[in-house]
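Sequence only, no structure available. Ideas?
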Amino acid sequence: MKTKWITVLGALVAVAPMTAMADNVGTCGWGSKLFDHQQGVAPQVLAVTTNGTSGSQTFGITSGTSGCTQDGVVNSTWKTAMFIDGNQKKLARDMAKGQGETLTSLASLIGIRDRDRDTFYRVAQEHFTTIFPSEGVSPDRVRASLHAVVANNARLAKYSSHI
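Reply:
I predicted one. Tokens follow.
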């Protein structure tokens, strides 16, 4: 019985780094679809395990299915999330005005080209109450709302994968 528990514990320890490296589930494979919008450790581990055991993420990347792409680009949003978390009040102020150093820094971090910056600033200002629905909104919610707003704008949608 002890051997069984040691094996299970060893498997969990092996899966933990993969879970962390999976960018908290990601947006690709059956696991990310089955556990979409669920929070916490359990859904993340189950999503990564589903992708790993079914091979759906590997197959999806190879075939361009299951929400996966073949463009060869690995996108990570951790820098954007950290920026929003560390600058939330200043970012809210700048978005409300449609200009400012923090908003410009965010645009740069996301990779918004100079020709699209004015559109980004205007859209962020117009959707301020969607992005910041309340004073105590979580940084994760701000990032998710900003992602949705940018993804729904025809000119800015190409940048949404960086948010």
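Residues 22 and 134 are 30 Å apart (CA to CA).
Hope that gets you unstuck.
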